[in-house]
Amino acid sequence: MKEKLRKIFLYGIVDILVRNRVNPNFITIFAFLLNFIPFYFYINKQFILGGLSLLLVSLLDAIDGEVARKSNMTSNFGALLDSTLDRFSEALIFLAFIIAFNNNFTIQLLLILCAFGSFFISYIRARGEGLSILIKVGPMERPERIGFIFIMSFFVDFIIYFLIAFTVLIYLTIILRIYHGYRKLTLKL
Fold it and tell me: What is the pTM of this model?
């Protein structure tokens, strides 16, 4: 259902971009640069504006792949660029929160743990693809992580509780992915 609603909303924008022959790599780079908007809001402790802008930027980021597929412009470079800039985008958001909470070591430590975990979730999936296996298990795919940060932005007074839950869910996802990879690789042998 979530996927269906997302596609209905995005198809109109995707169709306009395809008709105007907008290069999907341009969309990827543009969406990445727009991440400086939530970054700015977060470092200035305007968390609700940060969350709202993060959600809008994330929706735009979801468009590049659809445009590439519909316009027959998919490429290995485009996939590499998208994955790389997605990691930079996540790093920017975590860095913004770390800056905003520069006076709270516990929150900063949890944010660093979350950032590392987020990167490992993506790494495990990419490494699995390099080994010809798909590893997408666990509760914290990128859209869920963005959604979690979005919701957390509205309840920043309770950020420590959100970060504890976020950390647990991220590392649970890592464990599930490693186990899933282990099972797929050992069954493959």
Answer: 0.90
Q: Is 151 helix (H, G, I), strand (E, B) or coil?
A: helix
Retrieve residue 105's tokens: 């070591």
Residue 29: pLDDT above 80?
yes
Cβ atoms of residues 135 and 184 within 8 Å: yes
Burial call 79-92: b when 16+ CB within 10 Å, e when fewer: eebbeebbeebbeb
Single-letter residue type at 107: I
DSSP alpha helices (H): ranges in the chain?
2-19, 24-34, 36-43, 47-61, 63-70, 76-100, 105-130, 142-154, 159-188
pLDDT of residue 13: 86
Alpha-carbon 104 to chain mean position: 25
Active-site residues: which are they?
86
Q: Which CATH number fits domain 101-189: 1.20.120.1760, 2.40.100.10, 2.40.30.110, 3.40.50.300?
A: 1.20.120.1760
Q: What is the pLDDT of residues 153-176, one digit of tens each?
A: 999 999 999 999 999 999 999 999
